[in-house]
Design brief:
The longest helix has 18 residues. Strands 2-1-3-4 form a four-stranded mixed sheet. It is built from five helices and four strands. A hairpin with a 3-residue loop joins strand 1 and strand 2. It is of the alpha+beta class and 155 residues long. The chain has a single domain, classed as Nonspecific Lipid-transfer Protein, Chain A (2-Layer Sandwich). Helices cover 40% and strands 12% of the residues. The protein starts with 17 loop residues before the first helix and ends in a 12-residue tail after the last strand.
């Protein structure tokens, strides 16, 4: 058994560093003219997602680290909900993961790839935007027979 993998043989989602997450969240809150976060550590990731969405709603560019943590958290939730290695989901420049059960690739470019920007991914993941809306707008690039996340969203 590979020590880097969990009991089920899958690589567990990365654990977000709470101190770095809190720092990124607080920087985003300051940029939004809001007080620093004073909630429990278990709510940091969700608060970060909400703060990044608030920045987008105000027409602002979110703080880079806050956006990175929000994207990473929501990708990790996808991996937890739909484990596997059939579809690679890319949100450049922040992160990429493999998810969804089925045939897996071992080398080269995966046959099933979904790529989108941070805002679109966050809005898809929280249910603000549907898969069909994102595809119609051209906000998502999806290639491959299994590159459809509609059954796994929101996370």
């Amino acid at each position: 058994m590979n020590p880097c993998r969990g009991d089920n043989g899958r690589v567990p989602p990365r654990r977000l560093d709470p101190d770095k997450l809190r720092s990124a969240l607080d920087a985003q809150l300051v940029a939004l003219d809001q007080p620093p976060f004073d909630g429990p550590a278990s709510a940091l990731a969700g608060a970060c997602v909400a703060a990044v969405l608030a920045a987008y709603d105000r027409g602002l560019t979110p703080e880079r680290e806050a956006a990175r943590f929000a994207v990473r958290h929501l990708l990790d939730r996808l991996v937890t909900a739909a484990p596997g290695r059939t579809v690679e989901v890319r949100v450049p420049p922040y992160a990429a993961v493999q998810a969804i059960e089925g045939p897996r690739h071992t080398r080269g470019t995966p046959p099933n790839v979904v790529e989108t920007d941070a805002r679109t991914w966050i809005e898809l993941a929280v249910g603000r935007l549907s898969w069909d809306e994102a595809m119609t707008k051209g906000a998502v690039s999806a290639s491959g027979a299994r590159a459809d996340l509609s059954g796994h969203l929101p996370v």
